[in-house]
Amino acid sequence: MCGRYASSRDPSDLVVEFEIESGNVRESVQELPDNYNVAPTDSVIAVVERKNREVPDETIRKLTTVKWGLVPSWAKDTSIGSRLINARMETVAEKPAFKKAFATRRCILPADGYYEWYKSEQKVNGKPVKQPYFIRPADGGVLAMAGLYEIWRDKSVEDPDQDEAWLWTCTVLTTTATDDLGRIHDRMPLLVERERYDAWLDPLSSDPDDLLDLLVPAAPGRLEAYAVSKAVSSVKNNGPHLIDPLPPDGVDPIDKPEEPEETTLF
Fold first, then answer.
1. Does residue 182 lie within any of the structural domains?
2. By CB atoms within 10 Å of each CB, which of 64, 84, 124, 183 scores lowest?
C-alpha cells in the first residue's frame, strides 16, 4: 500500500511537467506548504482534467488540491475516506467505491517519492521493528502516481455555488510491487508514464480494459529505495530531513542520545 509520501515540488515545475496553462492553477495549490510527511486526510496536489462546459468536446487540465482519502458521492458522511486511501488495480473497475471514479474521474498525484515500512529481524517487546524506506525516481524526476478523485456534496452547506459545498477527495492506485521493491513491501503505487498522461486524464475515455493497459509498475531500476529515520513514523514530524538517508553507520538520529548542552563558566 501507499500510506505516506512526500510532496515538495514547486507548482511552476508541475505546470511545465503536466502542460497546464497558468490560469488553470487553483489558488489553494499556491497556498499549500511543502509536505514531507503526507498522511491520509491531508490536502494534496492533484492534476485533473475536466470537460469544458462551454465546449463539450474539449477538456481543461487543472492543478488543484484534494483531500487524500476517497469519499464516494453516495457516502452518507466523510468518515469512509480514511479507509479508502488506496485502490487495488486488480479490483478498481468493479468495486462500488471506485468504479464510477475509475470510469470518469482519474487524476495524477505528483510526489517526490513515497514511504514504506520493512519488518526487520530486530524485535522490541516481541514485535519486529519496522524500518521506514523512502522510494523515489532514481533520476530525481516527478513520481506521477495514478489516482482517482471524487466530488462529495456537503448538504450542510445550503448554497451549492459555495466552494465549501463540495469536498474533493482522492485515492492512490496500487499494484503488486516489482521484484526489486517487493523485499520492502508487497504493494506499490501505480505510475503514469509521461507519454500516457493525456490518455489517463481524458474524462471522455472510459473503457476499463483500455484504461488498465495504461498503467504499469515502475520499470526495474527506475526507482531507488533507501532507509530513512523512524521519525517519519510520526505525523507530528515534518521537514526535508525526513527523506535524508540514514548515515553510513546506520544509526538512526532519533536513537542517538542527546548531547548535554554546553555551559559557560564565568
1. yes
2. 124
Rg (CA), the chain: 20
Closest CA to 43 of 20, 60, 26, 59: 26
Q: What pLDDT sits at residue 151?
A: 96
Tell me the backbone φ, ψ of residue 240, rounded to 5 degrees: -60, -20
Q: Write out pLDDT tens, residues 18-33.
A: 999 989 999 999 999 9
Q: Are 112 and 134 in contact (CB under 8 A)?
A: no
> Which of 95, 52, 90, 35 has its CA nearest to residue 70?
95
Higher pLDDT, 9 or 162: 9
What is the number of domains present in the chain? Answer: 1
The contacts found for 218-224 with CB under 8 angstroms, 24 or more apart, are 218/178, 218/181, 218/188, 218/191, 219/178, 220/178, 220/179, 220/180, 221/138, 221/180, 222/137, 222/138, 222/139, 223/113, 223/135, 223/136, 223/137, 223/138, 223/180, 223/181, 224/135, 224/136, 224/137, 224/138
Written as nine digits, the cell of 65 is 488540491
89 lies in some domain: yes
Q: Specify the 3-state DSSP secondary structure of 178.
A: coil
213-241: average pLDDT: 91
Q: Which residue has better confidence, 218 or 140?
A: 140
From 49, 107, 116, 170, active-site residue: 116
Is 2 annotated as catalytic?
yes
Q: Could you give the angle at the alpha carbon of 252 between the alpha carbons of 248 and 257, nearest 5°?
A: 115
Q: What is the pLDDT of residue 264?
A: 46
Q: Would you say residue 258 has pLDDT above 60?
A: no
Residue 43 maps to which CATH number?
3.90.1680.10
pLDDT at 186: 86
Q: Which domain holds residue 157?
A: 4-112+139-222
